[in-house]
From TrEMBL, chain A:
Catalysed reaction equations from the record: Cleavage of peptide bonds with very broad specificity
The protein's role, per its UniProt record: The proteasome is a multicatalytic proteinase complex which is characterized by its ability to cleave peptides with Arg, Phe, Tyr, Leu, and Glu adjacent to the leaving group at neutral or slightly basic pH. The proteasome has an ATP-dependent proteolytic activity.
Lineage: Eukaryota, Viridiplantae, Streptophyta, Embryophyta, Tracheophyta
Record's protein name: Proteasome subunit beta
Pfam entry (one): Proteasome
UniProtKB/TrEMBL annotation, chain B:
Quaternary structure and partners: Component of the proteasome complex. Component of the 20S core complex of the 26S proteasome. The 26S proteasome is composed of a core protease (CP), known as the 20S proteasome, capped at one or both ends by the 19S regulatory particle (RP/PA700). The 20S proteasome core is composed of 28 subunits that are arranged in four stacked rings, resulting in a barrel-shaped structure. The two end rings are each formed by seven alpha subunits, and the two central rings are each formed by seven beta subunits. The catalytic chamber with the active sites is on the inside of the barrel.
Keyword Nucleus attached: yes
Protein family membership: Belongs to the peptidase T1B family.
Main function: Component of the proteasome, a multicatalytic proteinase complex which is characterized by its ability to cleave peptides with Arg, Phe, Tyr, Leu, and Glu adjacent to the leaving group at neutral or slightly basic pH. The proteasome has an ATP-dependent proteolytic activity. Non-catalytic component of the proteasome, a multicatalytic proteinase complex which is characterized by its ability to cleave peptides with Arg, Phe, Tyr, Leu, and Glu adjacent to the leaving group at neutral or slightly basic pH. The proteasome has an ATP-dependent proteolytic activity.
GO cellular component terms given for this protein: cytoplasm; nucleus; proteasome core complex
CDD domains membership: proteasome_beta_type_2 (cd03758)
Location of this chain's protein in the cell: Cytoplasm; Nucleus
Organism of provenance: Hevea brasiliensis
Protein name per its UniProtKB record: Proteasome subunit beta
Amino acid sequence: MKLDTSGLESAAPLFGVTSELVDGFSSAPSFELPVTTDFDGFQKEAIQMVKPARGTTTLAFIFKEGVMVAADSRASMGGYISSQSVKKIIEINPYMLGTMAGGAADCQFWHRNLGIKCRLHELANKRRISVTGASKLLANILYSYRGMGLSVGTMIAGWDETGPGLYYVDSEGGRLKGTRFSVGSGSPYAYGVLDSGYRYDLSIEEAAELARRAIYHATFRDGASGGVASVYYVGPNGWKKLSGDDVGELHYKYYPVMPSTVEQEMVEVAGA
Amino acid sequence: MECVFGLVGNGFAIVAADTSAVHSILVHKSNEDKIMILDSHKLIAASGEPGDRVQFTEYIQKNVALYQFRNGIPLTAVAAANFTRGELATALRKNPYFVNILLAGYDKETGPSLYYIDYIATLHKVEKGAFGYGSYFSLSMMDRHFHSGMSVEEAIDLVDKCILEIRSRLVVAPPNFVIKIVDKDGAREYAWRESVKEAVAV
């Protein structure tokens, strides 16, 4: 559908031009409009389309030794699994991690942007930025874009001078400081396992196993989560990837198949 | 839903707010402090959209501090309340903030005061006020038991009655509350009322 703006333009050219040029621009100037009758609702519909439930499970928690961060690796487009190997834990710098939930492009871009801003802060101030500062930078950027359809539900986890730090930041502009968070469609399932198994004085191996187990249980029940459960640890010397296990294999590790006793066997009938 | 309420007593003003940060059915944390200390003798108890709440109250706090730096004297509570309302009103038709505010303050000349400022920039000076679903329970409780010039003990008793009523009657009742007070000695935290302990990193 073309909006006809010929009524706005004067019929004759303003100054003398050759007739060939005028002939080339014979049709009235116009521009394309979306094919719809409801112009006012169109933009709202477009934003709603981009705003899906965050099909993922990510979690992070602070414990005695530092911060444990874990995530699944499935990307879904409605009912279609578009990838089983998405990196949802983003390395902002050697001592800070960000998790991805929501729009993949939004999370990757803004985390990369945050990494740049953190590096600039380091260069300008001759010291590393704190986790509080980094999360506030990201929260302010996301707040200024609120209502424009960004979909970001992220956790910033890191170790700075004050020790371990964990913040939840989302595209509505919310920013929360806390000790345990889980984000995504599978997060209620993960919270249950995480909350019941959590103690502050876990060892690194126990905390990793808790994180892995929580992700596994979320992927078991939530269709939009799956793939590989990655577990990262952030300590005083920076982050380190601890494991990446396929959740299918984890299932059989936690619930091995018991050979069941056969009650009756079918026997070949002799003769015909 | 977020519950905020407050009242004015004899030489003090008190505000209470719930402390849960909720996202649809999930409670992300239950020790989120929603009462900001605006300056030495003013408190802002805010409820509403999470991003707006923090950003708007921090904006007001920084501007109030700026006024004090520029002019050498702090803003009065009524001036701060009118400034806050003005900012909400200016933004209303362009980029509205969804925050409801109870501003409690103490001035040497005029004593304690409480201002009700809602998200469409309504401003009222009140003796008791409340926002959120909890207001359905706390407002009538306060109407029944409030009288002018209550002592701190009486006021805390009334606040506890309201919290008890909210906890027992509201279907999605928040478990924990924080109470802050402002009087001639300044604005400070008074108490927490917790029924669920949040794990705090030592």
